[in-house]
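Entry type: protein chain
Record version: 2
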Amino acid sequence: METHNPPDKIVWSTCNVNCGSRCPVRLHVKNGSVVRVESDITDDDSSGTQQIRACLRGRGLRKWIYSPERLLYPMKRTGKRGEGKFTRISWDQAFDLIASKLKHIIDRYGNEAVYRHYGTGNLGGVVSHYNQIERLMNVLGGKLNYYNSYSTAQIHQAMTYLYGKTGTGNYISDIINSKLVVLFGNNPAETRMSGGGTIRDLVLAKRQSKVKVIVIDPLHTDTVTGFADEWIPIRPGTDAALVAGLAHVLILNGMVDNDFLNGYALGYDQSTMPEDIPEGNSYKDYILGSGADRTPKTPDWACSITGIPAKRIVQLAYEIGSTKPVYIAQGWGPQRHANGEQAARAICMLPILTGNVGVKGGNSGDREAAWGIDWPVMPVGENPVKTSIPCFLWTKAIENPTGFTDLNSGLRGKKHLEVPIKFLWCFASNALINQHSDINQTRRILKDDTQCEMIVLIENVMSTSARYADVLLPGTSSFEERDLAYQGYAVEMGVLMVREKAIEPMGECRTLFDICAGIARHMGVEKDFTNGMDHDQWVEKMYHQCRKLKPELPIDFSKALEKGLYKWPRSGNSFAGLASFRKNPEKYPLSTPSGKIEIFSQRLWEMAQTWELPEGDSIKALPEYLSTWGMPHETDAALYPLQLVGHHSKPRTHSSYGNNEWLKEASPQALWINPLDAIPRGIEHGDLVKVFNDIGATMVRAKVTPRIMPGVLSLPQGAWYNPDREGIDQGGCINTLTSHRPSPIAKGNPQHTNLVQVVKEKSNP
């Protein structure tokens, strides 16, 4: 601490972005300004209550809060949508505009025409949370719902069909009990950077067990560099083909656990198939070539698709098949493809085939499990509207509601949409433009304000998406409001953070609760919304709800604010996600129709017969490999011969903090390209290059590196879209190149399935 010029006060706050962790930070305040951001320095740093050390993003929070682009006053649009032309208005004027338009939309179209857009830029608060919009709309008669997320749509749907639920994995710390770890596209060193979270658990477990770690990924990630014993590069979107090649070796060489397959699963061979399904449709038939395609999934077959040598596939199969327990887990990269549901289910087949499910040191093939206290959330009431869309298809719900059905778009609650989205709420979300696929198409849809008639956007800074608001409202940051925050989902402990307001709100910024209360007042439902309490009173009320779970918390709320940070170690030394099912499948059946692991899904079999899919898409009852659009076999591969994926990077969480100059300087945006692809194109490290396809184009500097396999490019996702006068992005934003065509089952985000070309820009100095 600076003893020569001590701060006026030090208060606890949080970094609120959606990285999986929830890091506490200590704010040093001097003369009404935050002058320093300090991380968790609590004395107790024993395992289970360890310090939750913020990464460089949390430590750079001051640069976000005091950004030159900080929004300070309510504004309304004066130019065309997207031009970024606004004029300042009062809060009362803003509330009047929103309330009158909202009433008009509800009266004319019904509540189903109102939608809160998906967004996760502010997840840390309990009272300052997007659920305030849910609460307001439920008081007003409801709104259109969504399901899925941009991050996990395919894997969550896949786990539901396979295991009957999501979250079936073991803790990452359980690798201390493992003999081998195989990670598919799982990179916690960059996606779970909190010093108190997954990466810490991986470091400690690896140090104690010295278990062999193999990472399968197109990129030589920081997880490979720091923790893996071997990197196996793989062509994007082909994980299911690798699994099929491994399964061929396992089956032919008697390395499958037949007792487990017969007792716990359906669909491995003909003896465990549903009675009304024709012969030749079991998983074993598919792998050995006695199924419909008559193609044995040999290592040579898998090699031709994945780019992994057949000899290495055989060796890996023997490593997995001759070792127990094996911890096999996947990140969320392999499933964020056009065939993502298939990849997610296929990866799970390795622990299923070898009987590593539900045991210590094993895993289900799902991502590592999360643990935390089940803290209370703000009550929002019941939404009378039951209709729900996949969150990735919101632009279709604006432009083509009559073509939006249960069979072609995954609509739930109705056979087809009856009205388009006419009023759109957007809170702490850059997914309106920046994080949504096919930015050029999205801009075209949003520019037409006769379709979606009003966009209300609440944000801290003038983001890419904020430029498309009709009414733009300045929200408070975590520095400027009192609230509670809970542990993230990538921390194996229970945490309660009681955060104090460090500084007064800048300009005319207001909390989300106060914004919604103001709109409720102008619509005559303020008392129904607030229950007679203000923001701070709700925070204290929710704190006392937490005390019902943890009575040892201080009775006096002011005392709780003083300490600020509370931790509880998780119970038990390890956790196997499906241990009860493994112990007694009759007593603890899964939530699948059969109560067992459904390798063959009759629900998917029936969906394949009834759902309406575009040409080239298909739904498979088995975890098969599907070669989709956007893969190297496509007819346009001659024009666009390189596969492009995105990866998470250190300076941003998605697009959050994407305008922080400190972080941009520390880790500039760059296109990863292998020397074997760069040299024939005359591209050198640091060159300005153009990446393009039929969807769009972006300019970015090249990072020539052997840390990515040949034939593959990668752009760190989340860079802010910055078009020039010709509409060519200058910021390296991957979503100028991604397709809005969803995956077949989940209707999820396929942003890693892209074909592109790259050329050196002529203007290089």
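Comment: The two ends are 46 Å apart (CA to CA).
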